[in-house]
Amino acid sequence: MQTVGTTPPQAESRTKLKRSIIDCDIHHYTAHEYYKDYLPRRYLESPPRAAGSGGGGHFNGGVGGRMVDAIPEDGSPAGSDLSLVQSQLLDPFNVEYGILTGDSFGLQSMADGEHAAAIAAAVNDYTIEQWLARDGRLRGSILVAKQVPHLAAAEIDRVGGRSDMVQVFVSSGAMKPHGNRFYDPIFEACCRYNLPFTIHVGVEGNGIHSPETGAGRVAHYIETRALRPQNMMAHLVSFIFEGVFERFPDLKVVLQEAGVFWVVPCLWQMDQHWHAERAQLPLVKKPPSEYFRKHVRVTTQPIEATPNRAIFDKMLASLFAEETLMFCSDYPHWDFDSPQLALPRLEEKLWDRIFYRNAAELYGLPDRGTGIGGKQS
After folding, report:
1. Which of 49, 137, 310, 353 would you label with 361, given CA atoms 20 to 30 Å apart?
2. What is the pLDDT of residues 283-316, one digit of tens each?
3. What structural domains and CATH numbers belong to the chain?
């Protein structure tokens, strides 16, 4: 069995952040060679078949889409070595809690749902034993096979009661928009354990998933990247107009790594259409922006660059950022956002909400310095 944490620290010297933060998106490496020992025997000799990819394949920034300096000295993949994650991210940036998100959500595009569910369970067990057990600052995400909702709910029941597993994790690539009643068993399980349902950009157009854009498949990765908000917008609109938050009033949803400010005109448009057509939507009892403000959270990476600071501040206000926005670095990907550089200088209270308190409230984490976070042997 492969383990993590075997490489000496290689982090460059940095000034440590004075106040601790919560990083909501750390991609530890979770490929087949790492989780295979947690799989049932019948799957050991049958690695998952690669799903067909849309979008012209991935941009190969860095090495395999990851920062070159995040590769351990022994040449193992970036994100596979706990000690390097500690020395490059957790320690220098004073990360009090980091949410692990892995990189195995391609299983959600597999046609064989039972095999996908077995992989999800193996990845979860690998994360618990090889990562969460070794550093008290880390929290895990429950990977599920969302294409088989009853098996996804069973996996949430299996590990959802753990205090170190803090969200249910799916890709934005999907067969159906995520507000569809098809997924209700997953939302029921999320509510049983008070776990957010997090949608992370990825595997759009792959395998059993719908094309990566409403107009069909595209030729280049940059097209997929530029149109990420389109896919996530479809999920957000679906959640609200399908009445998910009326059926599941305790459910929280996180939109991760699809940009930020696109949400604002989307809310304006939804509110406008709701006022004109709400007779068709008996389950939508409030303006869509009210559901968003109560139930949805958005992560910072990659936040859009506005023409000037005044527009940036107005967009933050229109997003209700003091309540809804959470920091994520996307380590160790090529477009990693340093906590020191990701956002311009903010008023202290807003900085505190974005970099710590919004995530602490969502994930049920303690105030700074009052938890049990810290290195473990």
Report:
1. 310
2. 999 999 999 999 999 999 999 999 999 999 999 9
3. 21-41+51-363 (3.20.20.140)
